[in-house]
Design goal:
9 strands, two-stranded parallel ribbon, 17% strand, seven-stranded mixed beta sheet, globular
Length: 237
């Protein structure tokens, strides 16, 4: 029987988190489910942990990508393998709690896309870095204003969507800018989007990818800004 829901987990050096996260997703979702872990050949052996889980549980599938990396392409490859009518994707560091996933999924039907949001009423950003919290909030407020978007958390990355939607929209971008592009185009094309509040928690274990140094953080910030400006004034070209 085909699963109803496919959860896509892009990973790179998440050995300490992935097993616990997979367990948490299975505990939270009672529906027919598959989990697709797309690992970019993690040096810490994340893929080995997933391989062991997949050998015990047929609901888990590993896609180990050797020689290619990138969040957006990992998500697209995961979605292409998804068998569920609904696809969900999220970070693997427990910043996005697995118990929120059922809240996203249950709104699919009335809505085409449901976003886990830090910036609607009831949402919160509880990460460790005050600088990242303030910078992210200011960027999303300004980005939503420039794009004239009803979505408040345009960089969320915590999303559930109807799989059929990807027949007309593909993910485009280098990193988190894909989410800005995806949500903007979805709204413009008339898809119904809803935001569900959640608390963005500090990383459980391991090292964050985006704040290893200030230069990387500024690089991504500049990338996101260019994406907003291109979408608003150049149609994204």
């Amino acid at each position: 029987m085909k699963p109803k829901i496919s959860v896509i987990l892009p990973t790179y050096n998440e050995r300490e988190n992935i097993g616990r996260l997979v367990e948490g997703i299975f505990r939270s979702l009672k529906d027919s489910l598959q989990i697709i872990v797309v690992d970019d050949d993690s040096p810490d052996g994340t893929w080995k942990i997933v391989q062991e889980i997949a050998e015990r549980d047929s609901r888990v599938r590993l896609l180990r990508r050797v020689g290619r990396r990138g969040l957006t392409s990992a998500l697209m490859e995961g979605i292409s393998l998804a068998q569920g009518e609904i696809v969900v994707w999220m970070d693997c560091d427990f910043s996005m709690p697995p118990e929120i996933v059922p809240l996203l999924v249950r709104e699919i039907g009335a809505f085409d896309i449901v976003v886990g949001s830090r910036y609607v009423e009831g949402g919160k950003d509880a990460r460790d870095s005050c600088f990242r919290i303030v910078a992210s909030r200011l960027f999303d407020q300004l980005g939503s204003l420039i794009l004239q978007s009803p979505v408040k958390d345009i960089t969320s990355g915590f999303v559930a969507a109807k799989k059929e939607l990807f027949d007309s929209i593909s993910l485009s971008g280098e990193y988190g800018d894909y989410c800005i592009d995806f949500l903007y185009k979805a709204v413009r094309r008339g898809f119904k989007v809803k935001e569900i509040p959640y608390t963005n928690m500090p990383r459980w274990k391991g090292k964050a990818k985006t704040n290893s140094n200030i230069f990387k953080f500024l690089k991504y910030g500049w990338m996101y800004t260019l994406t907003v400006l291109k979408l608003r004034f150049c149609g994204g070209s």
